[in-house]
Design brief:
By secondary structure, this protein is of the alpha/beta class. It has a domain at about 140-250: Trna Endonuclease, Chain: A, domain 1, CATH 3.40.1350.10. Helices cover about 60% and strands about 20% of the residues. The protein contains 5 helices and 6 strands; from the N terminus they run H-H-H-E-E-E-H-E-H-E-E. Strands 1-2-3-4-5-6 form a 6-stranded mixed beta sheet, sandwiched between helices. The protein is rod-shaped, with a radius of gyration of 56 Å.
Length: about 260
């Protein structure tokens, strides 16, 4: 049996055929490789194997092209994601700037509010002091009249007094009323409040006990003068054995008072 030989085409022909599948550069290289073997005998089997190799290379190139396409798509998606992230960062920065501005405005408002509160407290303090001084002056005028009307008390002096103990403790009494009851010397130590509380009743009782021996009288009594006093405050005055006077009457007095 005679084996048939195939006549190899020329290099340019081979190149032209290969360009259908490969790039020009690849076709050029493959054409020269095939041309260099044109003097060899090529059987059908050899040609078939070569054809299979060429097909495999073509498949690889196809796969590579698909990979390039997928990579390009991924790169576009990444670029889109980066643009969205950049926009989000810009929005976040703007919001942070707005937040910082709001905080600064809030801080300024707090400063203004603090100053306003301090000024208000100062004004209220001055008002309370003025009210306190006014109440004391009113009490100096009213208490002797109430005592005279309801206890037949004869006033000698009425006004604020300061007491200093041997230990150097200083106590200021709002109103000290000195006079007589049935011819006997009596001193009333008076605390003045617009609205007296049980706590204030007990506090003044402690002060009165400290100055009692310095009052220069054997009969020293305690009197609270107020515009208002709740039930608990009235009970505390009664328990302390003191008097509670409103502007026109004695509301509480000891059971054994003269």
């Amino acid at each position: 049996m005679v084996r048939r030989r195939f006549v190899m085409a020329s290099v340019p022909e081979i190149r032209e055929r290969l360009k259908v599948v490969f790039t020009e550069a690849q076709a050029e290289v493959l054409a020269h490789v095939v041309g260099e073997t044109r003097d060899d005998l090529v059987t059908r089997t050899d040609l078939h194997e070569l054809t299979e190799v060429v097909k495999q290379i073509a498949e690889v190139q196809k796969d590579l092209a698909e990979s390039h396409k997928e990579l390009a798509d991924a790169q576009r998606e990444l670029a889109d994601a980066q643009r969205e992230l950049a926009e989000a960062q810009k929005k976040t920065e703007r919001r942070m700037e707005e937040f910082a501005q709001t905080q600064e405005e809030l801080f300024e408002a707090q400063k203004e509010l603090t100053w306003a509160m301090k000024d208000t407290r100062k004004q209220l303090g001055g008002l309370a002091q003025s009210v306190g001084y006014g109440l004391e002056a009113y009490a100096m005028e009213r208490i002797p009249k109430i005592l005279a009307k309801q206890l037949a008390f004869v006033e000698e002096t009425s006004g604020p007094e300061q007491f200093v103990s041997p230990a150097g403790e200083q106590d200021d009494i709002d109103v000290v009323v000195r006079g007589t009851l049935s011819g006997r010397p009596v001193v009333f130590l008076c605390e003045t409040k617009t609205n007296i509380s049980p706590h204030e009743v007990r506090d003044f009782l402690a002060v009165a006990e400290r100055v009692r021996l310095q009052a220069g009288c054997d009969d020293v009594r305690i009197l609270y003068f107020a515009y208002r006093a709740g039930t608990e405050a009235r009970s505390a005055v009664a328990e302390a054995g003191g008097y509670l006077a409103f502007p026109h009457t004695l509301l509480v007095r000891p059971a054994a008072a003269a």
